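Researcher: I'm preparing a figure for a lab meeting and need a structural model of a single chain. I don't have an experimental structure, so a prediction will have to do for now. The sequence is pasted below. Please return the structure as tokens so I can convert it later.
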Amino acid sequence: ILKAKEKIKFDNNQIPILPFSKNRKEYFTRYYNSLKFKNVLSDAKLSLLLGVRPIKPQGYSKTYILKDLNHKSIAVFKPKIGDSLSTEAPFFLTRWQNKFLNLIGFGGSIYTFVAGNCHIAEKASYVIDQKINTNIVPPTDIVNLDPRIYKRKKANNQRGSFQLFAQNAISAKDFLGVYKNYNKVFDFINIKPRTKLYLDKLPSHLFDKLVINDVLEGNMDRHSENWLVILDDKDKKKAKDIVLIDGGMAFSPKHANTSFERSKQYFWAKESFPWANRRFSSEAKKTIKEIFSQTEKLQEELFYTYVSEGDKEKIAKKRAQAMSERIQMLHYVANIKDLPIYKLREYRTEKEINNAIKKLNDTKK
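Model: Understood. Here is the structure written out token by token.
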């Protein structure tokens, strides 16, 4: 164990940067997350060196669930070269399929700007989540790691996102009783008299946090298995908190202008889904108003996150600008028009979002 520990070396890029904040609670939260992240990364590297094999979930992407010496899941590592959307995808057929789709322009910006940068989007999701104080994305950063060092004499480090594993959580799909695309499992019953019962399971302010994060990200993969629910200690039928995972398909420099992109964006924006068929809470409206007032700072954070990981400045600026436009649209929908949440599906294309921004500017005048 001591010899293995000597091989573990950290550099400054492997520990989340701790920015100074005048808000003492925010400062110590980030300080705690930084220390926790460093300790988990150290435990993961140590267990790999000592032969504890990670779990590789089924799927096209190369994802590794890392464990500690007690074989407890502690983190999720997603290497850049394991991105299933990339033209450098690990599987031969997937790789050539992506090259062909990219060549013909299918999927809009997904295969052009999102693919190959999913690991950066994972980190950016956490950075933005911390900045807007919703605190529902696990600590995430980009590190150099060899998830298969247990079978090699020398490390072959890969660049990828490292996210702390959400403990004691279940998928929203199982908790809410819905399919992956949020269609009702309970079609055979009359939902209207029982709507309040379902809404009581998941407090509305938690779902509002999910919506706010997804709109800022322009997330195109928030199906019901890509967020988790932490159960209440006293009542296991109710949610205490939620956790957003798999935020890789996000922060495109373009809006969802193609039908393929729109089919993946805002899965939850359905009139039949009780949590979306309601208006934002007063707490959420206040949060959105605060986010709207600090749009420029959020743009700077997103720009820096992408550029520091090798993204072109021109593209990073467009990513930040697209997020800014979505923030303005969200403020218009929530605070100006006070529309139901599911109506966000009507504001996804560039034309729809620009129309909302124009109307927002007209109200200022």
